[in-house]
Specification:
Blueprint (H helix, E strand, L loop, with lengths): L3 H53 L2 H11 L6 H9 L13 H9 L5 H7 L7 H11 L13 E3 L5 E3 L10 H13 L3 H16 L8
Helix pairs in contact: 1-3, 3-4, 5-6
Length: 210
C-alpha cells in the first residue's frame, strides 16, 4: 500500500515527467523551424557564392567547377536567387521558407515589387512575404478579342466571312434570298453592293429620298 509520502513523490515525478515532455516538444518545434531557417540561409549562401564564382572565374573554369560537382544545368535556379536577392543578406531572408524564395526568384519580373518592398520591412517573415504576394496579385481581366471577319487560306491569302445572322423574323435572310432568286446574283455580289452603297451614304455621296 502506497503511503502519503510515496504518493506525493509519485505525483511530483509525474509532474516532472509532464514538464519534461512539454519542454521536449517545444524544443523539437523550435529545432524544426530553426533548421528550416538554416536551410534558407544555406541555399542563399550557396547562390551568392556560385554567382561570385561565375563572376571571378573564366567561363572554362566555371564550367569545369560545375562538371566536377555534377551540377551542370542545376546552377541556373541558384543564379536566379542571387540576382533576385542581391540587395539582401542570407540572414535577412532566413525566416522565409525555401519554396517561397524560389517562387519569388523564378518569377522575379512578376514579383519585383514584392522583392523591393521587402527592403522596407523591419522583420522579413514568411507571413509578411505572403501578405505582400497577395496584395500584388491582380485579378485577371478577360481580354476581349476584336471581332474579325477575316479568314486565312492555305496559300497565305485571306477572305472575309460574315458570321451567321440570327433574326426572329428572318428578314435579312429572306430578303437576300429573294434578291438572289429574282436577280440571278450571288449572295456575295449583293452583300458587296449593299456595303458599297452604305459606305457611299456615310461619305455623303448618297442621300435618302423622302
Amino acid at each position: 500500500m502506497m503511503t502519503h509520502v510515496q504518493g506525493a513523490i509519485a505525483a511530483q515525478v509525474d509532474k516532472q515527467a509532464d514538464a519534461q515532455a512539454k519542454v521536449k516538444k517545444t524544443d523539437i518545434k523550435n529545432f524544426s523551424f530553426q533548421r528550416l531557417a538554416d536551410a534558407t540561409e544555406t541555399i542563399l549562401y550557396h547562390a551568392f557564392w556560385l554567382a561570385n564564382q561565375k563572376q571571378q572565374r573564366s567561363s572554362l573554369e566555371y564550367r569545369k567547377l560545375l562538371l566536377e560537382q555534377g551540377w551542370k544545368g542545376e546552377e541556373k535556379k541558384y543564379l536566379k536567387l542571387a540576382a533576385a536577392f542581391q540587395k539582401f543578406s542570407p540572414e535577412d531572408l532566413a525566416q522565409i521558407e525555401p519554396r517561397t524564395i524560389y517562387q519569388l526568384a523564378e518569377n522575379a519580373n512578376k514579383y519585383q515589387l514584392v522583392i523591393d518592398r521587402l527592403l522596407d520591412l523591419t522583420a522579413i517573415t514568411q507571413d509578411a512575404v505572403r501578405k505582400l504576394i497577395t496584395q500584388e496579385r491582380k485579378p485577371k481581366t478577360l481580354k476581349q478579342e476584336k471581332p474579325s471577319i477575316w479568314r486565312r487560306t492555305k496559300n497565305g491569302g485571306r477572305y472575309c466571312q460574315i458570321p451567321p445572322i440570327h433574326e426572329q423574323d428572318e428578314r435579312t435572310g429572306t430578303t437576300l434570298q429573294k434578291m438572289m432568286d429574282e436577280e440571278g446574283l450571288s449572295a456575295q455580289q449583293i452583300v458587296a453592293e449593299a456595303i458599297a452603297l452604305r459606305q457611299a451614304y456615310k461619305e455623303g455621296k448618297l442621300s435618302v429620298a423622302h
